[in-house]
Protein: Malate dehydrogenase
Amino acid sequence: TSTPVNVTVTGAAGQIGYALLFRIASGQLLGPDVPVRLRLLEIPQAIKAAEGTAMELDDCAFPLLAGIDITDDLKTAFDGANIALLVGARPRTKGMERRDLLEANGGIFKPQGEAINAHAADDIKVLVVGNPANTNALIARSHAPDVPADRFTAMTRLDHNRAIAQLSKKAGVPVSSIKKMTIWGNHSATQYPDLFHAEIDGRNAAEVVGDQEWLENDFIPTVAKRGAAIIEARGASSAASAASAAIDHIHTWVNGTPEGDWTSMAVVSDGSYGVPEGLVSSFPVTCSGGKWEIVQGLEIDEFSRGKIDASVAELVEERDAVRNLGLI
Ligand code: NAX
Structure:
């Protein structure tokens, strides 16, 4: 048996945490032969609830779970971390201005970036789930100068999976028939789910569907506003599906994308597809050997160009706002 992988989860007592931790401990994050040690970071008021979750984790007697540490201390949480899932964030409350939201989250993701820089393992991989995820990842990354920029990512895999599910229903095909889905831009209502490069059983998805009206006025808004629809129906925001997407994101990053397919991840832009360098924006990526690469050479038509640019413009605004607040 190998040494356990240290997996840090922030916001562990929250609803995504509750759906996430059991799947990590059961081996679904890294595979059925990789032991894990969990580090749960919470704010002091939520430590007791995290302890309750840890009791339940104990009670599952997961053979791969090598231990659980619960803490409100950043150094303890990130010490030797190999994987960090940054889930805890400050949600937008009624009447809150965007400036206040970004500032509150800066207060969380700046010190976490610093702690990752100082204490994490050399092979640290970071996934930011807490919203605004792309910009929170940008903040954390800019306070971790010694960690390679490609280790900081944000989650658009839930949007990616939602897009696959919607297409599967529309086309009447199983999800396994769908490949090369892409989410571009920000994890927000401006995101662009792209069917022009997606494939259904090897054929172009937009052509197979052949319904531009559905694509523009149904598919795109349904995927982009799915989070709100879940809240409306469930009375609470997406939790199990978000946790499932976080598992998928890390599993794919570590184990690779299958031949002939790719995934969506928000990663630090190298300027590809006209996305300004340094922004954390979602792209089609392939993964291999624990590294991701942006898929190159896709043709972007005028429709897609406009959608990508609109979402990227929002990311630029968020970046400029956190810059003005001195958070990056
Ligand atoms: P909850 O409010 O249930 O849980 C959040 C937890 O984070 C709480 O237990 C809180 O005590 C903790 N927390 C707050 N500040 C912290 C800090 N500084 N350090 C450690 N822990 C801290 O929210 P939940 O439903 O679990 O959602 C978590 C985040 O995921 C939210 O920001 C949410 O907006 C975001 N989401 C992101 C998605 C994505 O696709 N990227 C989709 C799902 C979800 O909406």
Remarks:
- The radius of gyration is 19 Å.
- Residues 32 and 226 are 32 Å apart (CA to CA).
